[in-house]
Amino acid sequence: MKIVQIALFFASVYGASAQTGCDGTEPEKWYPSGGSDWTNGFCKFERQCNGNYGAGFSTELACCQGQFGGQTSGVCLSNLPSPPTTSPTLSGGLAAFWYPDYDTAWPDAGCLNTLPLPFNANDRPTYDTQLDCCKAAYGGQSSGKCLSQLASPPTTSPTLSGGMAGFWYPDYETAWSDAGCKNEMPLPFNKGDRPEYATQLECCKSAYGGQSSGKCLSELASPPTTSPTMAGGVGTEWY
User: Are strands 29-32 and 43-46 parallel, antiparallel or unpaired?
Assistant: First the structure.
């Protein structure tokens, strides 16, 4: 009886091997993990001989690219010893493109190129330069936050040397009788919220005409007197 049992055992082993074509000498390769959960699939280094998952791959990367190309979750690639990013990168781990920061409130947001990406491929627009991104995604942003993050940020208005604006505006933060006109940067208002003038004198005449204190006119480089004068600094009227 024991001999018969042993014979049946060997018959079952060799019979199974014959059916699957396995003899234990098959090389180990990289195979897809299988199953229906492709989104979370990955590759395993193992010996297979039944051909259920193809001929196998010589490297894990080749397996991921061949079986899980386009996998937005990146699970397969994340298992590599040195996983690549899902997008091209520059030195320092930065993406080779810029994208809008939708995770921050629009007035306070800018453009980023940091990794890992906070979105799946094609879920957000991408741009070749930070400036292109700011113009497209944050055009009209009155806070100027996006543009202020550029390596050489432009001002929201034309400027003269020394960081002064190329125009003058009334100082609404100061009481009217004590206020004048300014051309300082950064602007204390959003573009279009205040009138702008080509010269300080024009600003004073328009915004502070009739100002009895003469504060605005007194701040001119060559302030006029409050009354017209003749040569020699003598007034045309007696008092």
Answer: antiparallel
Contacts of residue 208, defined as CB under 8 A and 6 or more positions apart, other chains included, come to 170, 176, 179, 180, 181, 215, 216, 217
For residue 9, the 8-state DSSP code is H
Q: Mapping DSSP to helix (H, G, I), strand (E, B) and coil, where does residue 17 land?
A: helix
Full pLDDT tens readout for the chain, 239 residues? 555 454 444 444 444 444 445 677 778 888 888 677 887 888 888 887 766 667 788 888 888 877 777 666 778 888 888 766 554 444 456 778 889 999 999 999 999 988 888 888 778 888 888 988 988 888 877 788 888 898 887 655 444 445 677 788 999 999 999 999 998 878 888 877 889 888 999 999 999 999 999 999 999 988 876 544 444 555 544 55
Q: What is the pTM of this model?
A: 0.33
